[in-house]
Amino acid sequence: IGTRELMGLHGAIRWWRDAFKPALGTLLLLSGPLLAQALLIWQTGGIWSNTKQQLDPWELAGALLVGPLCEELVFRACLLSILDQWGGWSPFWAVFWSAFLFSLAHGYRLIFNRDNLLPILVQMAFTGLFGVYAGVLFVWHRQVLACILAHMLAN
Hints:
mainly alpha
């Protein structure tokens, strides 16, 4: 196996299997929170009716493009591949440890904000669960594109 194939960066993308099918699975997985958010927006009269924040295009680009691309390349294409293929770990443990480290990486706010721990711990729990989901996608498809699209949708 070559490095590009190992990292899920190999050539031929089967769009239905490697991209759209995982994206539909992600939307199904997130349909509950998406529906809850839509109902909240509908009840409050719109997205901007109860907030004074403006949509920052750089923050949006980071959350929807840069973050998913970089994090999936690091945690799935590199780390999971190393543990699974080169490290000789079973896929179960490779997915578990890459998801665990993915969760820890999202706990960086614990260093700066110790007053409000619950939201940070909840985010870490959900990113850990998403890390398992993305890890399973990567093991099944061996295509990092599926993980990147799922991460973009999740964000």
